[in-house]
Amino acid sequence: MLTAAISFALTAGGVAVAGLRAYRRRFLSATRWLAVALVPAGLYLTGLFPVARTIGSEFAAWATKLVFDPRVWTGIVLLGVSAVLLVTTRWVGRRGAVDSAPERPAAAAAAPERPAVASAPPKKPAASRRDDGLGDFADIEEILRKRGI
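Below the sequence we write its predicted structure tokens.
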């Protein structure tokens, strides 16, 4: 009976907060509050509070065994070794796939019926540009000079 009173009190409080949030025109927040507020009443009405209590007590018993039982520590070590092996083999498998990639064939030489194209001659720097650190302003000076300013 106390569980019912607490769960419905929590639900009523959450619905009240949701109503205040909706009154302030924060509908998204109000909807979230309403969703969370309905959880305690739903848990009580479905009978899941005893299940939650059982899960909690079993978790506490497991934690107690974890601290004091060497057999549990052996199991944890085995799980850790298993995880390390899985990660290592995955890493080595990916690394091996990159290293053993098939080599590309060498570039084909120029065919006799198709002459090789010569590259363009290198450009000479413009003689009109000054090398006084104002390279960007040279274009502006040229535009101003054309307009007579």
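The first helix runs from residue 2 to 23.
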